[in-house]
Structures are given as structure tokens and as C-alpha cells.
Design goal:
With about 150 residues, the chain is of the alpha+beta class. Helices cover about 30% and strands about 35% of the residues. The chain has 3 helices and 4 strands.
Amino acid sequence: MTETKITTKKVTAKKAAAKKATTKNPEQIKSENDFPKTLKSKKGDENKLRILVKAYEPKVLDISVKQIIDTAKRFEAEIHGPVPLPIEISKYTVNRSTFVYKNAREQFEIRVHKRLIDIMNPNPKLIEALTNLSLPSGVDINVKMG
């Protein structure tokens, strides 16, 4: 009995220490002035073309991102990225049989890989070249001007 009480005290002490380590003092929290000024951007300062590329297969996605970046470099544009975004995972559970055997199930998942590319100050020739770009099937592209 005494051994279990000792271990539970150790565990609670560890939890308390971990909780103290995760809580931040007001001095530790960074303000907006602590970050480098290169991350801040003024609205109306420059045009930005934000391209979000999605695909189920990461190899196909990387090939299409490389094509986009090569096209932008050909027109001497400033590029930020590609930034890998978190993988969106959708999981589906279905019954194996149609009527009986409720406990027999199969699980499937769909993974959507994403990359983000920012092109600063795009010129009209670059935008036209990107619209005429032929990319592999299975690649979804969202373009926002902002």
C-alpha cells in the first residue's frame, strides 16, 4: 500500500511541474514589437498573388509546385514558399456487410496535401503564363489576388 501512495505523489508532482512549465509569465509573452519587421506588411504597399495548391498525392503536388515556381522565376518574380500546410485527413468507417455483422467494419481515409505559394508584385505576363500552365490531373489550384 505504501508503494502506490508514493508513486501517485510522484506522478502528481510531475503533473504540477509540467503545468508550471507550460504556463507563461506575462514577461515571457512576446508583443507585436518583438517580431522582425520583415514579417509585417502594410496594406496597399504591394500586390500579392497567393496560390494554394491541393492534391491527394504528394509527388504530383511537388511536381506541379515546381512548375509554378519555375514559371514565376522565369518572369523574375519574388517568391515566398512553397509552404507545406497541414495534411487534411478525412476518415470514414463503413460496415463490411450490408445487413449483419455490425462489428465487422472497414476504415478508409483521404489525405489532402497542401502547399502555399506567395508571389509578390506579379506582372501581367506572369499571370497570363500561370493561367496557361498545364498541370497534371488531380491537382486543385486556388488563386487569390490581395
